[in-house]
Amino acid sequence: MQGFFVLVFLIFSQYVQGQSQVEWIQFQDLQSEIDETPQAVFIFFHADWCVYCKKMELAAFKKAPVINLLNQNFINVKMHAESTDEILFDGQVFKNREVNNRRQSYHEIPLILAERHQDNMTLPLSVILDKNFKIIRRYFRYLSPQEMEKELKEVISVLNDK
Amino acid sequence: MIHKINFRHKIYMLLSFMMLGVTMQAQSQTAEMKGQVVNEKGDPIPFVNIYSADEKVGTSSGIDGYYELKLSAGEHRLTISSQGFRSHKLNVTLKEQEILTKNMTLIEDVLGLDEIVVTATRNRVQRRKTPVVVSTVSPRLLTATQSISMAEGLNYSPGLRVETNCQNCGFTQVRLNGLDGGYTQILMNSRPVFSSLLGVYGLEQIPTTIIDRVEVVRSGGSALFGSNAIAGTVNVITKDPVLNTWEIGSNLSYIDGKSFDRVLNFNTSNVADDLKSGVTFFGSYRDRQAYDADGDGFTEMVKLKNNTLGSKAFLKPNDYSRLSLNLNVIHEFRRGGDRLELAPQFTDITEQLEHDTFIGGLDYEINSKDFTQQVTLYTSVSHTDRGSFYGGLGGGRTAQDSILAANAFGNTKDLAWNNGVQYTKHFENEDILTAGAEFNHSATEDEIKGYNRLIDQTVNSFGSYVQYEWKATDKLTALVGTRFDRIDVEGEYRVGNVERDVDITQNAISPRLTLSYDVNEAIKLRGGYARGFRAPQAFNEDLHVSSVGGEPQFVILSENLETEYSDAYTASFNFSKTKQKQQFDLLVEGFYTQLNDPFTMVSKGASLPNGSILEEVENGEGAAVYGANVEFKYSPSTKYSFQIGGTFQKSKYEEAQLLYEAQTGTTERDIYVDEFVRNPDIYGFFTASWMPSDLFNLDITGTYTGEMTVPRVINSNGFLNLNKVNSFMDVNLKIESHMHFNDSFMITFSGGVKNIFNSYQDDFDQGPERDADYIYGPAMPRTYFIGIKFGKLH
After folding, report:
1. Among candidates B462, B407, B474, which has minimal Cα distance to B436?
2. Is residue A12 assigned to a domain?
3. Which one of A41, A51, A103 makes the best mutation probe of the B interface by having the most chain B beta carbons within 10 Å?
4. What confidence tens digit (pLDDT) does each residue in B721-735 have?
5. How far is CA A74 from the centre of its chain?
6. Most buried one in A24, B72, B239, B618, CB count within 10 A?
7. Does residue A11 lie within any of the structural domains?
8. Residues B72 and B184 in one domain
9. Which residue has the higher pLDDT, B459 or B545?
10. Are strands A87-89 and A75-80 parallel, antiparallel or unpaired?
11. Residue B11: inside a domain, yes or no?
C-alpha cells in the first residue's frame, strides 16, 4: 500500500517539477498547431555539422527552467536547416532549392527567416515569433542555459505586455 | 479581390519596413537603382542584399530577383550578397534624379576551400584568401592514412617527405621542397617549442588524436617564425573542445608478418554550458616490437614504447579575452640494434634512448570591444631529459671493446623556453597590421663520458617582426613584412680529442614580400620572395650518434662556422571552381631557393683516436634547389574525393661539394657530389576516398619516391659509396565502418593494409659493421592493421 502511494507520488512529482524535455514538433505540423491555438512560436534550426547546435541541445534544451519556459509559452519547432522536405505553409510550398546544386544546401524556410543585411546564414539559429507570426527575436549564436532563460523571460514579458 | 498576404510576404514586408525606416533617416534620395539579380544560368535570385556602405541603406531583391534601391546622387560603394554566392562589390555614380537600371549576375561561392588557417600571416584567415600558399593536412587525411603519429601523415602534403634516417634509432626527418630537416621549423600551435632535441624524435611522438590540423607553408616562413624556417613551417594545431565527449581507441598492426605494433589511446573533453571554460585530456600508449627485415639479427625498425599524457584547458573571463593552458608529458623508450634482450653493453650494436619530456604553454588573448585589435601574450616551455646508449662491441670481443661499450651511456638535458607578444590591427579598409616580439632561450647539454663527447650549448634569441597586409585593390593584395633577429650562441663542443668553441652574436634582417592577384573568381596568382638564415649551432641531427662500419660516428661543428643565408622565390597559380556539387582545385607552384654558405656535413673519416668517425659541419658550396609542386584535388560529390600531388625538383651545388675527406696515408680519394643526396628528382602522393554514407568509408592512399642517390659507408674508415637507388611506390588501403547505437555511443571498426605491394628497401647493410644510416624509402614494409574506436560523438 505504501509502495503504491510512493509510486503515485513519484508520478505526480514528475508533473509538478515539469516535463523533462522540450515538446518539439516538426515544421510540417506547425500550420495545424497555430490554426488550432494561435500562440508564440520558437523555432530552432540545426544541422549535422553544427557543433554548437549539438551543444545547445545538450545544454540549454535539457535544463528544467528553459524546458518549462518553452513548453508553457511557445509552440516549439525544431528544423534541420538542410532538410529536403517540401513543406506546405500558409498556402505555399517551400522546399530546398539548392539540394542538387550545392553541398551545403539550405531549405527556403531557414533562408527566409535568416535574412540579414550583410551577413550570411549561420547556425545555430533560434527565431521567436509572436502569435501573428511576426519575428520578435532572432539569435544567430550559441545560447547557454542562463542566456536562454534570460532571453525567454524577457521575450515572454514583452509578449504579455501586448 | 482578396489579396492573400502570405507568410513570405509578411517577412518581406517586415524587412522592407525596416529598411524604409532606415532610408527615411538618410539624406534625400533623389536617384534610384533597379534591376534584376540572376545566377550564372540566368535564374532569378531572391532575397539578395544590396547595400550601400556609405549611406547605410539597402534593399532586398524580391522572389523574382528584381530590386529597387533609392540612393542620393553621387558615388556609392555597394555590396551585393546572398547566402551561397560570392559577395560582389560594385561602385556606381548616380546623378540627381537618375534612374539607373543595373542587372547583376552572382556567382556561386566556392566550397570546401573556406577552411580558416592561421599560419600564412599569423592571423586567422580563410585558406583560399591567404596571400601565401598554405596546405593543410586535415584530420580526415590523417585518419585515411591510418597515421598513428604525425610523422606518417605528413607525407600527404605537396613538397613534403618524411624519411627515416637511421635503422638503429628510427630518427625521422621532415624534408620540405628538397631541403632536409634543419630547414623546416616545426611549431605547435604557432609556437616553436620543438627544440633541437625534440625535433630529432618528436615527429613520431605526437599522436594524431589530438591534432586538429597541420598547416604547411612552403618557403617564406622566416619573416614571421624565426631563423630556421628556410624551407617552410609545419604548424601542428591541436584541438579545441566544444562538446562533452570521450573516446577510447586501439590499433594493432602486424608488420611484414613478423612484428606487432600496439596502440591504445583515449581522449575526453568537457566544456561548460556557457562555453566559457573547457578542458581536454588525452593520452596514448604505444608498444612496437622491433623489426628485422633481412634476418641478420639487427633491427631495421626499432623497438618503441611511448606513453603520452596531455591536457588542454581554456577559460574566457569575458567576451573579449581568452586564457589557454596546455600541458603534455611524453615518456619514450627506443632500442635498436641486435640482441635486444641483453643489456646494451653486451650487444654488438645498440642505440637505446629514453626520453622524458614535458611541454607546457600558457597564452592569453585580449580583443578590443569591436574586435578590430588584438593582443596575444604567450609563453611555452619544453624540457627533455634523455638517457642514451650509442655503442656496442661492434663485432669485436677484446677487453678494450668491452670497456668502450660499457662507457657508451650518455645523458642529455634540453630546455627550450619561448615567450612572445603579438599585436594585430584590422583597418576599416581591410588592411591588417601585425607586429610582435619574441624571446627564446634554449639550453642543451649532451654528454657521453665514455667518448669524451660533450655538447654544451645555449642559444638566446630575440626577434621582432612587423608585417602589413595591404589590400591595394579588389584584386591585388600585397603582404610586406620583415623580421629582425638577434641570436646569441654560446657553445662548447667536444668529441675524442677534438674540441671546438662557438661564441657568436648574429644580427639578421629577413624581409618578405608576397603579392597575390585574383585574375577572376576562379584564378589566383601568387608570387613572393623571402630571406632566411640559420645561425651556427648544433641542430637536431648533430645530437645523434650513428653506428657505421662498427664504429660510432659523431658530428661536430667546424671552426669558424658562419651563418647560412637563403633567398627563396616562389610563384604559384591556383584555380578553384565549384560547379553545383563538384569541387575542383589545381595548384601549380614553382620554387627556387638559393642557399649561401649552407651547413654541410663532411666526413673526415676515422680521424678520432679510438677509430671513431668524425663528421664536421662546415659552410659548404652555395647551392640551389628549384622545382615545381603540383597539386590537384577533385570531388564530384560528397561521396568521392581525389587528390594527387607531385614535386619535380633539381638541386645543384655551384661547385662540387665535398662529402668525404680522405685521410692522408690512405689510398682513398675524396668524394664529391654536385647535387643533394637523399633527394629524389620526382616524388608525390595520391589519395582517393569513397564515402557512400556516414557509416562506411574506403580510402586508398599512396606515395611515390623517385630515384635518388644515397651515400653508403663501406668500411670502418667511413669511406663512402654513392648508390643510385630505385624508386618506390607504396600504396595503402583502409576500410572503416561506424555503428551508431545512440547519441552517446558509437563504435568504429577499421582495417586495412599499408604498403600493399611491399615496396621496401631490399639492400640493407648487414651485420655489426653495417652502415645504420643506409636506410631510405618507405618507412615500413607490408603491414596489416585493424582498429577499434568507441565513445561518444566522434
Report:
1. B462
2. no
3. A103
4. 899 999 999 899 999
5. 8
6. B618
7. no
8. no
9. B459
10. unpaired
11. no
In terms of pLDDT, which residue wins out, B496 or B537? B496
| A147 reaches B (C-beta below 8 A) | yes
Position B111 scores a pLDDT of 33
Q: Are residues B405 and B265 in the same domain?
A: yes
State how beta strands B104-106 and B31-39 pair: parallel
Same structural domain for residues B94 and B123?
Answer: no
At residue B617, does pLDDT exceed 90?
Answer: no
Partners of A113 on chain B (C-beta within 8 Å) are: 11
Instruction: Give the three cell numbers for residue B621.
Output: 658550396
Nearest-by-CA chain B residue for A56: B273
Residue appearing with cell numbers 547583376: B104
B33-76, pLDDT tens digit by residue? 888 888 777 777 776 778 777 766 777 777 677 888 888 888 88
Q: Are residues B81 and B125 in the same domain?
A: no
pLDDT over 70, % of chain B: 81
- Indicate the residue of A55, A91, A98 with minimum beta-carbon distance to B242: A55
pLDDT single digits (tens) B535-555 = 777 766 666 777 777 777 888
Provide the pLDDT for residue B253: 93
Share of chain B above pLDDT 90, in %: 18
Give the CATH number, domain containing residue B277: 2.40.170.20
How confident is residue B669, by pLDDT bands cut at 50, 70 and 90?
A: confident
Residue B8 lies in a domain: no
Which of residues 574 through 613 in chain B touch A, CB cutoff 8 A? 578, 580-581, 583
SS (H, E, C) chain A: CHHHHHHHHHHHHHHHHCCCCCCEECHHHHHHHHHHCCCCEEEEEECCCCHHHHHHHHCHHHCHHHHHHHHHHCEEEEEECCCCCCEEECCEEECCCCCCCCCCCCCHHHHHHCCCCCCCCCCCEEEEECCCCCEEEEECCCCCHHHHHHHHHHHHHHHHHC
- At A93, phi and psi to the nearest 5? -100, 125
CA distance A63 to B614: 70
Per the structure, the count of domains in chain B is 2
User: B14, A133: Cβ pair inside 8 Å?
Assistant: no
Q: Nearest CA to B474 among B221, B740, B129, B234?
A: B129
Over residues B462-479, mean pLDDT? 88
- CB contact (8 A) between residue B6 and residue A55: no
Task: Single out the residue of B308, B344, B352 nearest to residue B326, CA to CA.
Answer: B308
Q: Is residue B253 part of a domain?
A: yes
Contacts of B51 in chain A (CB under 8 A): 117-118
Assess whether B48 and B145 both reside in one domain: no
- Residue B83: predicted pLDDT: 55
Question: Are B45 and B120 in the same domain?
Answer: no
The CA distance from B643 to the nearest CA of chain A, in Å, is: 19
Which domain-ending residue is among B81, B105, B129? B105
* Nearest CB neighbour to A134, from listed B14, B58, B243: B14
Chain B touched by A162 (CB under 8 Å):
no
Which residue ranges in chain A fall short of pLDDT 50? 14-17
Same domain, B121 and B66: no
Picking from B105, B133, B168, the residue at the C-terminal end of a domain is B105
Range of the domain at B619: 116-645+654-791
> Smallest CA–CA separation between A61 and chain B, in Å?
11
- What is d(CA B542, CA B487) in angstroms, rounded to the nearest whole number? 19
Q: Would the pLDDT of B12 be above 50?
A: no
Q: Which residues in chain A (56-115) have CB-CB distances under 8 A to chain B?
A: 58-60, 63, 89-92, 98, 100-104, 106, 111-115
What is the residue range of A110's domain?
21-161
Please name the residues between 18 and 47 in chain A that touch chain B, using a CB distance below 8 Å: none
The pLDDT value recorded for residue B566 is: 85
Indicate the residue of A58, A103, A142 with minimum beta-carbon distance to B638: A103
Residue B506 is assigned to a structural domain of this protein: yes
**A146 at B interface, C-beta within 8 A:** yes
Global model pTM greater than 0.80: no
User: What CATH number is associated with residue B73?
Assistant: 2.60.40.1120
By Cβ distance, the residue of B47, B273, B580 closest to A115 is B47
Task: Assess whether pLDDT exceeds 80 at residue B107.
Answer: no
CATH number for A65: 3.40.30.10
